[in-house]
Amino acid sequence: MSALQHPRTITAIEAECYRVPLAEPLDDARHGTHTHFELVVAKARSSDGIEGVGYTYTGGKGGRAAHQVVVHDLTPGLIGKPAAPGEELLDYMNWHIHYVGRGGIAGFAVSAIDIALWDLHAKAAAQPLWQLLGGDGKPVKTYAGLIDLHYAEERHLEIIQGELDRGHTGIKIKVGRETVAQDVARATAVRELIGPDTTFMVDANMKWDVETALAAAREFHQLGCLWLEEPVLPDDFPAFAEVGRRSPMPLAMGENLHTLLEFRQAFATDALTFPQPDASNIGGITGWLAVAQMAREWGVTVSSHGMQELHVSLLSAMPHAGYMEMHSFPIDQYTHRPLEVSEGLVTPPTTPGVGVEFDWDKLAPYREL
């Protein structure tokens, strides 16, 4: 009997919550100022003694609530169930808390447990995640996803030069200031710094209505931007479809789509060129893979949002991989394998499991629960 067929069951799930300070406050157009990120960790153990570690993260709010959903609402119903991640168990967790869930805080909790079970699953198979999924360990295209709306121009360009020096060949900035003209001026200065050959994206964080988004898209198109991200509210699918129909440049979104139904609706607009699922909130690895399959069926690449230390292994296994965001929340700096960028590429880890091994000593000062 192979490791993947082993009738192991879940014997315990433990959860921890950390509140980790950022090196400096970071601003975007909708969420205000970020001073911390929260890390919610789920540790799942199986009947044959294997432990898997999963996690989710927040922008500084809701972590305690997600932790409590793991402890009080999900764990009691999972003890004794097969320790096999996949659609059946994800479906069970989603329905178990459906009345209060459907993608919010509950979705983050579900995701942490799903990732823990995939880690356990891959460790049992003695394979890194990308190999378990049929990949060959290929490098992944990445870019620096900045949270930078608050910077004055000189500091902004200094930050971006630092990312170029780090090895990035792609840069994404936040837009959504008081006027489109202000955004265009900032983006123009960035394009002048990075040159014509550096991939350039802009992210509005749901700031605009349709007409403002279209006015901005025309300007950013002239600057050679690859995509415009979240120009309107993510669940206003008619508005997203309208922007997509009239925009001269492709659209991206995904971080605020927290159910598979929302992603199906997004694809159905025929305006989503760069889907960006985040395993921290879409149902973990199982949910992320389902969105990747949708992208394949719609004939587009699949990219990612945040959580780069995990997504590198997922994207490495995808034949239709797009871009991996290197997010400004530095979760990987609290692991034993911080990611290194070389000429715009990142290589996935080769250790068995999902490839995310936390440095518990570094995290210890920030534990809350």
Task: Write down the CATH topology of the largest domain.
Answer: TIM Barrel
What's the CATH architecture of the largest domain?
Alpha-Beta Barrel
Helix count, per DSSP?
12
Q: Determine the strand fraction and express it as a percent band.
A: 15-25%
- How many E strands? 11
Query: How many domains, as an integer?
Result: 2
Spell out the helices and strands N to C: EEEHHHHEHEHEHEHEHEHHEEH
Gyration radius, rounded: 20 Å
Low-confidence runs = none
Broad shape? globular
Head-to-tail CA distance between termini: 39 Å
CATH homolog superfamily of the largest domain:
Enolase-like C-terminal domain
Average residue-wise pLDDT: 95
Question: Helix and strand layout, with pairings?
Answer:
Elements: E1 10-28, E2 32-46, E3 51-58, H1 63-78, H2 87-96, H3 105-124, H4 129-132, E4 140-145, H5 153-166, E5 170-174, H6 180-194, E6 199-203, H7 210-222, E7 228-229, H8 237-246, E8 251-253, H9 260-268, E9 272-275, H10 284-298, H11 308-316, E10 324-326, E11 345-346, H12 360-363
Parallel strand pairs: 4-5, 4-10, 5-6, 6-7, 7-8, 8-9
Antiparallel strand pairs: 1-2, 2-3, 4-11
